[in-house]
What we know:
This protein is α/β, with parallel strands linked by helices and 603 residues long. It contains 26 helices and eleven strands. The protein folds into five domains: 2-113, Conserved hypothetical protein from pyrococcus furiosus pfu- 392566-001, ParB domain; 157-208, no CATH class; 209-329, no CATH class; 360-465, no CATH class; 483-579, no CATH class. The protein has helices at residues 31-37, 63-78, 96-110, 115-127, 132-139, 143-150, 157-164, 170-176, 181-192, 201-208, 244-264, 314-326, 338-356, 360-373, 390-397, 400-415, 433-445, 448-461, 468-477, 481-484, 489-494, 498-509, 511-516, 522-534, 564-579, 598-602, and strands spanning 2-6, 11-13, 43-47, 57-61, 86-90, 230-231, 240-241, 270-273, 284-286, 294-299, 305-313. A hairpin with a 5-residue loop joins strand 10 and strand 11. The radius of gyration is 36 Å and the shape is flat.
Amino acid sequence: MKLDFIPLDKLHRSHSNMRFARKAPDVTDILPSIRARGVIVPIIVRPEPDEAGAPGFGVIAGDRRYTAAVLVANHVAAAGGDPEPMPCAIMEEGDDAAALEASMIENMARLDPDEVKRWESFTRLVKDGRSVEDIAATFGLPELAVKRTLALGNLLPRIRSLYSSGEIDRATVRTLTLASKRQQADWLKLVDDPQSYAPRGSNLKSWLLGGQTIKADYALFDATDAKLATIADLFGEDQCFADASAFWTAQNAAIEARREQYLAAGWAEVVIVPPSEHFATWEYEKRAKRKGGRVYLDVRGSGEVVIHEGYVSRREAERAARNVVAGSEKPKRPEISSATQAYVDLHRRAAVAATLTEHPGVALRLMLAFAIAGAPLWNVKPDQSVARDEAAQESVETCAAETAFDARRRAVLALLGCPEDKPTVTNAYGSDDRHLVTIFLRLLDLPDPAVLDVVAVVMGETLGAGHAAIEAVGLTLGIDMARWWQADPAFFDLIRDKQVLTAMVAEVAGQTVADANAKEKGATLKKIVTDHLAGADGRAQVTGWVPRWMRFPPAAYTERGGVATVAANAKVAAAKAAAEEPMVERVDDVVPEVAPEPERLAA
């Protein structure tokens, strides 16, 4: 570069200036200084013609100083004076990338531009042949920071525009880099719809991932081996699982495997603390494995599992301390070794298992107690599925079916002696052995009809939404969804497909009306359906209408498929065909009676 003074009428803003397309900058802060002392720090220019093709110099960096100098020069000229030339550092001609770098270095040293403008500039550098490494070295940025900025290129142009204009915040735009183009388009539809809620910030990540955000670092298993998809935005350090339900299936299996590993290593007991509870360290004391210390696997709702090795409850520790203080003698050696205890436990278990087969009523109550309270070999938990949309979730929570089921749940909680404010019967007590025994003894006192009421509620709580079992039960019991469901605004807000809406019009208004309105907008088609269901605007009221997806059996409206309930129904049909093979009616018909033979022992 060389330094020189150039008349202002020979200068113009260069296309390579990163702020070329923006309005004139605010120079009120530097205008008094330049009016009093002129421009002291040279601006960076290079030889290039102006818009009319006349020779001159383009301002690469120093746009605010140039703008302020022009304002001062216009004032001086109006007063009859001669404007001063501008001190300039002149670059060589050509090399647009070098010019853009100079502009960015100048501007970024003064004030970081917004990320969309930075993305535009970095993209131009990449197109001019600069690598990510070159850009990072030039501006003193980590390579990851450059990659994150370039990640904005994965966003739809309108989202970048909303961000640049300040209509969406940084947390939202960064989360949107997780989204596919289809998800971005769906989110923009929510933004445009005044009746819908467009999630933002942390809520947006939950919306994209189906309701729960679980970091990949929390997995006790190898996500690649488990073939579970993970996604991550280039702005964040954490990857997240795309399917929370699949994660928990794999995580629970890994937790059980970890428990078995600890038991095999000689730990006396391994306790799994479910997400509904919390392992408070101040309630426990450290205790070595050889002194009866346990392992606690603290499962958090976030998916993280914190392992606490060698602990006993503080109450146990205090009781043991009192025993030691009571007598200074050494602890008495137990009369039975651990190997002998295992021998006794295994034989007693075998005897109880065999005897339970003769008392199915007791077995049913024990199984129900395990399902409610949980145990080391049991992992039963209530379904926690929620709708992504707040209005849809409210629709579910207030529907007739949920209201009726909640009333039965409250009755069962009272029957078991549990507080009625518990959210579920399953896990109402926690996983303590005493609670399990308490529930079992309570169930033994109840008559069979009452026990079956408890079974029905526990089974209802632990049915997974969308599972094939829903189809199997619905078909078996001939469930009429019109008894439990009526169309509401939350349902129609979720329907966007015009082909589906046209088919719904045909169902409630007839094919003639559907054909006549086939080219109407979705909002018009929805109004036709809702008017018929309500009997409004002179329409004949239609009662008992249920969309095909919700019926038992379900069906699709188009040839495109993709309806999960229809796929689940197909699994049920295949299972039903396999179940029609002849089967024995009773176990006793195929298992010979086996009884102890004391004579053999005597012999």
